[in-house]
Specification:
The complex is a heterodimer. Chain A is of the alpha/beta class. Chain A is about 35% helix and about 25% strand. The radius of gyration of chain A is 17 Å and the shape is globular. Classes of the chains: A alpha/beta, B mainly alpha.
Chain lengths: ~240, ~300
Amino acid sequence: MSLLAVEQLDARHGLLKAVRNVDLRVAEGEILALVGANGAGKTTLLRTVAGAHRPASGRIMFDGRDVTALRAHQRVARGIALVPEGRRLFAGLTVEENLRVAGDAGRAGQWNIEALLQVFPMLKARLKTQASLLSGGEQQATSIGRAMMTNPRLLLLDEISLGLAPLVIDNLYRSLTALFSSGTALVIVEQNLNRVLGVATRICCMLEGRIVFERETKLATRQQITEAYFGLRQDTFRDARP
Amino acid sequence: MIWLNQIIQGTLLGGYYALIACGLSLMFGVMRIINLSHGDFAILGVFAVWLLVAQTGMSPFLALAAIIPFMALLGWALQHWVFERSLRAGPLVSLLATFGLAIVIENLLFEGFSADTRSLAPEIGDLAFDSWTLTDQIYVGHLAVLIFAVAVILLVGLQLFLKWTALGRAIRATSEDPDTAELVGVNSRAVYAVAAAISVATTAIAGTFLAMRATFDPYSGPAQLIFAFEAVVIGGVGSLWGTLVGGIILGVAQSLGAQIGPRGFLLTGHVVFLVVLAARLFLSGVDLRGALRRGLRGFAWSRSP
């Protein structure tokens, strides 16, 4: 049984339909890459799953139960966490306080501040620093760490390499190997295909609010992904969906 | 010596202003609601205390301790049924809702208690007028010192609570970004309700001390709101230390003004408030002259057929 099952989901921003009739399943422990051009609806889809955005219609099932009506903090209690686009740290709080807020409010589990400092050793010296004074990479590490502190069963990562230097991104992804092998189900939104194909087991491509391509990473060719990404020969791939 | 005396008395008075302002500061800092009924809650609270004292003859301090939980509950309920709904409709609606609430409270109190002026001073015996003699010209009242001490303890206590407890961290996180706080598991509505409960509970303390050192009637609330608001703005919005400093600055300004002339008390306080406000706007880069010009043009525009 899938951990997450999104069924015929529609989400809007006013009149704009950002997510159209999306069906998506994520299995326990699976790592799913979600790619697509800007404005394809990836962020809205993640925010709707996390409870930060109300869907216009459709259903979100988590662990066999309907969570569509639950508010974001209730979904965190069930085990859904989102690393929001743009990090969204509590700027006036220290790094440690940012982590503790999530730790206090989230679930019990393997992740605590000590365990996180093993994953992100660069935060060790910064624990007492106000979050607004961190570098971009440190901010992103804090944001991911904050979501991990809630001990999610499903973690949604939205554009974690946005605005970071390539070296910093390398470092971040190296740190995250512990997360990738922890058995937490992940949905990763990422612009950099190479980066995400290296870790994901399955890839989904969104175009204009729809999922137009979905395949095991090892079966998908770069050519197919690129064509789905830019909307070339869409019809071919719609039939190819499992 | 007279001036030193005025500064000391003004500082102690500032303690009262900080006391009435801290709840307003907390509510604005956390929920971005300017609660225009804040002063009226203080008066509502003191009427409850007064009623309890009049019925049972107990000490006003005990009566206050008994009333505080009910005021906290009232704050929690208001958040749930009034503030939260109005906040969803935008900041102007919540401002109007609290304004309406103020009118309702004032007139309900008037209906129930008439316009009589009351005081709790007769209920606290010598504390109302006892004082320590510092020099032959400077006396400080026991009550004024007590109020100041309570204000400092309350503000320091709140600050420590916000800094070091899990709930305090959740309140600060929610005040910065309620949506993201929800995403890390914080129930933002519950946090708001706690902040509202604390805010309204503190008004009862301030109101009771007002009634001990002076008088109150059903319409005393708005004046208290203005002092609280001025203390918050002078001290900097959302900072509890700033609120204490703001209250003291306001109190000292008023006391010095009163020494200059009989009408100086209120006037000096308001002038200091306006000067600080203008300086803050100027320093934050707001184009004051442009805003004024646009405002006038907008006014002319709205009047033109």
